[in-house]
Amino acid sequence: MSRVPLTGTLKGLARWGLILLVAGLPLFLGGVTPAGVLFARILALVIAGSWIAAMVIEGKLKLRRTGLEVPLGLFFLLAVGLSFKSVYRQAGFTALAEWSIYAVAFLAAVNLFGKSAWLRRLAIVVIAVGTGLSGLGLLQYAGVLGHAWWSSPALSASYVNKNHFAGLLVMLIPLTLGFCIATEDFGKRLLFSYLLALQGVALFFSFSKAGWISLMVSLGVLGLCLRYLAGGYRRGVMLFFTAAAMFSVLAILLWQPMADYLLGEAGREITRGWLGLALRVKLWGIAGRIFFEHPYLGSGPGSFPLVAPGYRPAGLDHLLDYTHNDLLQLSVELGGGGLLLAGYGVVTFFRRSLWYLQNQTDRNWGLRWGAMGGVLALALHSLVEFQFHIPANAVLCFVLAGLVASGWRADEVSS
Asked: Taking the C-alpha atoms of 401, 96, 81 and 320 in order, what is their torsion angle to the nearest 10 degrees?
């Protein structure tokens, strides 16, 4: 067998492995089950192994430059060092294994999905799976199908928790919207508009207020990008004011008497959830105390659930597994050093993404515009949830980030 067919087969295996990872992981309750973790680890090994083997055969061990290699590499070196240093080594190595999957997903998306056909293929599969789960969730909400693992009246489809499912939807909706903008075919635009509406209805009935707000902010930012970076005045203004109108509706629904009047039990589900904010504030207080005792290098990767019980305040009867703020949990476990590296990577990603949106006009512009919106929405949602500890959502977010970065040009990366 010649080298070219073999390397093509290996790269194809890696590409389909990533597509299967993104599409299949949500079916394992968002990837939080032991089977889901095993599924993700096996596919990550297949993706990395096939891709590396293809590069070895080609004699080109080279990665596409994004400018994120340095912070990503330093972050992993810091995490490895802290895992060996920590008294909670097993937790550290477990966290490293999880983060390695996300790194493989990001790098594979950057290097293997830059071509238009594969990028669109991946995006279509993601949208199809997400829309299918939206339909499943609506059938569960209507009582046609059961949902034994979650007793709340809110919609959560194959996920354990409504907020976790909302995290998936806030990434899918901007991506689907990007498809609507990217295509000039009326039939395709009509189809994706229908899928967009189905996803939006599912998000509404998830009653995830953080999901609603993060999506609205993301849509507002995307509208401003269209207006000021791409010259799409009408589209940008329309999208911006759509987000503003959604904010207004949300404000009305969150007013208890109006919510009760309009939606009955569903309205009470919306407003009842704000009680969780008091719990989050207590968790953030615990995380703050731990951080100030370990400000530079943290308590060790994956250590928060093991360290937090020692800081439990009187009267708090809740499982201390997550801070419900991924940025805060990162600062607790990796200290100021990890926080600075992660912050540098995030700022670099959005700065270069905005440069791309302003200076590039390739046919995948709309898709990457929507993918950036999805990354932004989940990042905002994670400030009051633990979205990056839900493997299916974290993998998809890093894949979307990789799809955006795959469009960056060398002159932009070096700028």
From this structure: 100
Rounded Cα gap, residues 206 and 52, in angstroms: 41
Neighbours of 117 (CB within 10 A): 8
Show the tokens assigned to 409.
């040009």
CB 97 within 8 A of CB 83: no
Radius of gyration of the chain (CA): 21
DSSP-based helix, strand, coil % in the chain, nearest 5: 75, 0, 25
Residue at 340: amino acid letter: L
Look up residue 34 and give its amino acid: P
Contact 396, 214 (CB under 8 A): no
The pair of structure tokens assigned to 89 is 């080594």
d(CA 19, CA 7): 18
pLDDT in tens, 289-334: 999 999 999 999 999 999 998 888 887 888 888 999 999 999 999 9
Q: How far is CA 350 from CA 105, 306, 372, in A?
A: 18, 34, 8
Write down the domain spans for the chain. 68-413
Q: Which residues of 80-112 are buried (b: 16+ CB within 10 A; e: fewer)?
A: eebbeebebbebbbebbebbbbbbbbbbbbbbb
pTM beyond 0.85: the answer is yes
Structure letter (DSSP) for residue 364? T
